[in-house]
Amino acid sequence: MVSAAESMILACQGGDDLRDRLYRTVGYSLERNQTLGSGPLATAPIGQLETIVATVLHQAGIPWNESVSLAVEHLTKRMVAPPAADEIRPRANLVSLLRAFRDAEIRLAVATTDNRLPAEKCLEVLGIENLIEQLLCGDDRTSPRKPDPAVLLDIAESFGAPIDQVIMVGDTVSDLKMAKAAGAMAIAITGGAGSREELEQQADVVIDSLEEISVI
């Protein structure tokens, strides 16, 4: 987000006021170098984020069409592009962990506000694409999208499982509220968007690594 925002500010010759307004609106703390857990950057699909950013630019005096073009060129195009392999850093031995889940007949799904192309690329680079049965993305048009609790209800229905047997692992307050609203268990993982204190208020359990989840 930072590189996209800074190139956009440079392109429209904006100053510190625009910079502060833009980061504050999308939910990013420059002081902490952290995405805020309840802000649009952490929770909104890319299409919504594009509109939010364009609105900030327009409110700064830039014509609407130009604002949209700037948001598309400097933000959207970067966020929908497949990530480079060196940008993806797993925080656990995901292949081993998810294989253990699969062998224990635990079925796996991923729900993300990212678009499908970069999400699929991420799973491929991590080597877990064949371990994930369902992938729900922010640009899907025929299924509910995060943070709608129907995302988890649909996953439960497709897996033939009651919702109280679904465990959602997420790193934002929005993820956890979605799980609670659906009736699923909510596990928060630190290190993403949102502080431990924020996550603890919503989660059933807080972990620091996926490897803390074990098959009994």
TrEMBL record:
Sample GO molecular function, one term: phosphoglycolate phosphatase activity
GO biological process, one term: DNA repair
NCBIfam families: HAD-SF-IA-v1
Protein name per UniProt: Predicted phosphatases
Species: uncultured gamma proteobacterium HF0770_33G18
